[in-house]
Amino acid sequence: MSRITFLRAALILGVAALTAGCLGQKTPPDMPKLQPTKITITQEGAPCVGASVQLLKKDDLTYKWLPGGVTDAMGVCVVKTQGQYNGAPEGDFTVVVRKTVRNESETRKNTPEPTDPAEAKEWIKKVAEEEKEFDYVDLKYKKVDTSDLTITITSGKNEATFEVGPAVEIENVSALQKI
Fold this sequence. Notes:
By secondary structure, the protein is α+β, with helices and mostly antiparallel strands. It is built from 4 helices and 15 strands.
């Protein structure tokens, strides 16, 4: 095969791959039609970066097509359903927002994990005592029962902006109990 023929074939394959990628993934047969959805989360008027956003049906907590995502540097969450399919199903949803951050312990930063099992056990215990997890968004937005943020997804593009109020720093004790 000549170099020109090879380059043409590579170009055609590249365009085909890009076209296939742009068309999106094939969705499961029983999945409802998804609508493009972007949600912006602000906190004190600024983008809320790294927040988890979920759209939940308050009246049907067993609804299996879970739309959501994570906000970027501009506070924008491009919603995907099941974490992989672009968009959200049509319907009424409660918007749940969480922003949780775990601090890194000084022990983890400065001392490598020992290879000796007894020493490793003590190291893990010390790290667990030093590390804490904090919620940075008001806890009312963390649960479907208490969030007052709602969105109705309709046919076509959907965009909404939600303000989650002042920043908080609340230690997440339940997360510590998991360690």
